[in-house]
């Protein structure tokens, strides 16, 4: 921790204390999740259901119970002069409710939103004092960028070594064949030619894309290669990992760009948004990882642990300053993809896939818990008859065809599956149409288990 | 373990588009209706007593008029006129009370529509409310064809904010009076009396700004609400403090302020009261 961030940490801590004193707390909630984990949908549902709950609707019964029904009002904090785009829950909800409905696009930039929750005070004298106001700060961003966080603790040489080791294994080796051939053919003292740098970058980026889209892998760095964001592809990105032996001009160019890239990500991403959190929720598409096969499953686990090392595991000083989250909830998203009796297994499985991440969080002094949730419930329970036997399944309307379908999601194991399990091969869960929704979201959106998660995560702070 | 078959998608047969799922969510989460406690037994007894009193006195009066007619026609007519005038006045008073009381209920209805996000009801209620405002108060135009949040913001800016400022002015005037009165009054007991009277008058004045003309029952209900809202108008409100300083820095105030801390307290209460009354009467919650 450098002196500057130490000073900032002290200032932030003082501000937190002052705010608590006058009943105007600010709670920063980190919603972390790899790409496609369901962050944008989660935030949309969270905001719609909280605002509806503030109007008296019973959208989040478990949260209501946890805070003894003291929630009085919930409102979106009006925009100030922020330079960061605003998260737009109405637009997302409108698109989900439209006919035909649309899920949010891949997120390509940051957006933030704060919601103010007015709660009655807990004490018996509370009636005489004005309500407390807890402001919840939320942030949405592209999931790919999250994996830039662990890079901040590596230099170019060690990052290259680790990345290339991973790239020469399993499914990666196959899709990265062209890139690996390219760097293996490069002379160790290759000159700083931009044509070479660009070529290497293009091959490397295409390999990352194929890993993500064809194999469901998640530990893919750097994040902006996959999702360049609003500024598009800049020369800053024209680098790639090089083997240890490389010493020439190209290697030092790549190293310079690597450092510049990290500087850029640090000042745009880590410092403003990812240094200080009070609560964290880690969203994991466990079922998607399970269906994508053993390698994707293990890769997801590894990526989660690497991110958790930065976000949830503060050092003692950060903990002292209250900069590390005190509660970290791990949640399996899209729980409506499995029948209700399999949801407990899903929550148990998330506990296993997040084992590394959990260790980091707990070493950082945070309490952890595990959940299964659907931010927007799109299915109902059904029965599928397969080979003459009845299996619990779900029924929903397919997004593109608009046709009803019963889906048997396979067995959901409670623990990382045995090798035999992976024989069944790759399965891609179809996307569903959301149920009928009110575009204005006056009564929130149907969900599964959001309230239990929020009760645990925020109950004590309200 | 390998007994479980692999995942599978089974398409439904009619290939035509299926209806989107409907979980009946709106109904499931609808806020529990406030329990209608109905009439308390005390209220029932009071109502019964009123019916008895009024009913029997009507019958009595009828009998009396009939008796007078049997004595002489002119005597009967005069008695009838007196009775009609008397009862007319009583009923007019009751009617006015009812209206005043109900107007306060309408404020609640608008606020409930706002809280529920019921756009149609809110728009209609806002327009009704505007029609009831006293003459000369600026009203927002074109509410009917405007997004509802814009309409609410416009009502706030054109009507509610000026009313709040007028209420503040009333509060300041009352504060100066209360301060002066406590400064010159001979006994603390008299202070309380004068203060209460001035406070009630202030609350009714503020209510009138909002187009409410509460009678006795209405005033009692209003005072109850003001007491409740006073808790939310923070006692440490900076605005109140600033205004108080404004009031007290007038010449006389400076002169006597040292001796009458009680006066400062009274003045401050008046300002708070004006704000709380405004809070209690406004159709839209303060943003
Ligand atoms: N059935 C169901 N599908 C969901 C749910 N949440 C997300 N999904 C699906 O998952 C997809 C991805 O969700 P997003 O919220 O956009 O994911 P994200 O984490 O924001 O992804 P990036 O922006 O790419 O990082 C959606 O398009 C939906 O198809 C859910 O609660 N139920
Ligand atoms: Mg997103």
Automatic annotation (TrEMBL), chain B:
Assigned GO CC terms: membrane
Subcellular location: Membrane
One protein family per Pfam: DUF697
Key words, A-Z: Membrane, Transmembrane, Transmembrane helix
Bilayer topology: Multi-pass membrane protein
Transmembrane segments annotated in the record for this chain: 44-66, 72-94
InterPro entries xrefs: DUF697
Protein name: DUF697 domain-containing protein
Source organism: Neoroseomonas lacus
């Amino acid at each position: 921790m450098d002196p500057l961030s130490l000073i900032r940490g002290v200032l932030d801590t003082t501000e937190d204390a002052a705010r608590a004193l006058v009943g105007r707390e600010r709670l920063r909630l980190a919603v972390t999740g790899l790409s496609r984990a369901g962050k944008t949908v989660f935030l949309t549902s969270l905001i719609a259901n909280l605002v509806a709950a503030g109007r008296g609707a019973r959208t989040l019964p478990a949260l209501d119970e946890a805070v003894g029904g003291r929630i009085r009002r919930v409102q979106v904090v009006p925009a100030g002069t922020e330079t960061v785009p605003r998260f737009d829950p109405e637009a997302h909800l409108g698109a989900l409710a439209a006919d035909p409905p649309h899920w949010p696009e891949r997120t390509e930039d940051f957006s933030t939103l704060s919601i103010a929750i007015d709660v009655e005070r807990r004490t018996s004298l509370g009636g005489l004092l004005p309500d407390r106001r807890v402001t919840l700060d939320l942030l949405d961003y592209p999931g790919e960028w999250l994996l830039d966080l662990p890079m901040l603790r590596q230099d170019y040489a060690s990052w290259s070594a680790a990345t290339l080791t991973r790239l020469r294994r399993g499914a990666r080796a196959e899709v990265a064949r062209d890139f690996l051939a390219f760097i293996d053919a490069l002379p160790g003292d290759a000159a700083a030619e931009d044509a070479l740098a660009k070529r290497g970058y293009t091959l490397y980026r295409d390999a990352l894309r194929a890993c993500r889209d064809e194999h469901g892998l998640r530990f893919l760095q750097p994040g902006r290669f996959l999702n360049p964001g609003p500024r598009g592809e800049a020369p800053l990105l024209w680098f790639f990992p090089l083997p240890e032996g490389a010493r020439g001009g190209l290697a030092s160019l790549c190293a310079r760009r690597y450092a510049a890239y990290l500087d850029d990500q640090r000042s745009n991403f880590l410092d403003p948004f990812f240094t200080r959190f009070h609560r964290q929720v880690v969203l994991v598409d466990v079922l998607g990882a399970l269906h994508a096969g053993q390698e994707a499953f293990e890769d997801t686990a590894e990526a989660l642990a690497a991110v958790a090392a930065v976000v949830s595991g503060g050092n003692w000083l950060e903990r002292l300053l209250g900069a590390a989250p005190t509660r970290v909830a791990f949640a399996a998203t899209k729980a409506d993809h499995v029948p209700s009796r399999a949801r407990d297994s899903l929550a148990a499985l998330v506990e296993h896939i997040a084992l590394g991440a959990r260790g980091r969080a707990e070493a950082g002094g945070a309490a952890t818990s595990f959940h299964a949730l659907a931010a927007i419930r799109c299915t109902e329970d059904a029965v599928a008859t397969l080979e003459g036997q009845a299996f619990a399944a779900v029924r929903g309307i397919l997004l593109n065809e608009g046709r009803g379908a019963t889906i048997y999601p396979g067995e959901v194991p409670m623990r990382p599956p045995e090798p035999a399990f992976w024989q069944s091969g790759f399965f891609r869960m179809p996307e569903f149409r959301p149920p009928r929704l009110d575009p204005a979201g006056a009564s929130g959106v149907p969900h599964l288990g959001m309230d239990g998660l929020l009760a645990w995560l925020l109950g004590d702070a309200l | 373990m390998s007994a479980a078959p692999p995942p599978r998608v089974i398409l439904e047969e009619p290939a035509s588009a299926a209806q989107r799922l409907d979980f009946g969510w709106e109904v499931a989460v609808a806020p529990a209706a406030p329990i209608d406690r109905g009439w308390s037994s005390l209220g029932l007894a009071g109502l019964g007593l009123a019916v008895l009193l009024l009913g029997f006195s009507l019958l009595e009066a009828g009998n009396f008029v009939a008796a007078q007619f049997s004595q002489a026609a002119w005597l009967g007519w005069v008695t009838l006129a007196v009775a009609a005038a008397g009862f007319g006045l009583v009923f007019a008073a009751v009617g006015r009370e009812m209206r005043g009381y109900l107007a306060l209920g309408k404020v609640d209805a608008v606020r409930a529509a706002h809280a529920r996000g019921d756009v149609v009801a809110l728009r209609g209620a806002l327009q009704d409310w505007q029609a009831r405002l006293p003459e000369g108060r600026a009203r927002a135009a074109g509410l009917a064809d405007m997004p509802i949040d814009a309409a609410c913001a416009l009502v706030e800016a054109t009507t509610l904010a000026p009313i709040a400022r007028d209420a503040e002015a009333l509060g300041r005037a009352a504060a100066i009076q209360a301060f002066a009165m406590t400064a010159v009054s001979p006994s603390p007991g008299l202070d309380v009396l004068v203060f209460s009277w001035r406070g009630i008058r202030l609350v009714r004045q503020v209510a009138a700004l909002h187009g409410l003309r509460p009678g006795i029952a209405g005033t009692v209900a209003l005072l109850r609400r003001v007491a409740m809202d006073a808790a939310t108008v923070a006692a440490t409100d900076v605005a109140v403090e600033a205004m108080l300083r404004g009031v007290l820095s007038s010449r006389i105030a400076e002169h006597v302020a040292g001796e009458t801390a009680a006066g400062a307290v009274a003045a401050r209460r008046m300002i708070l009261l004006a704000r709380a009354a405004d809070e209690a009467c406004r159709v839209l919650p303060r943003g």
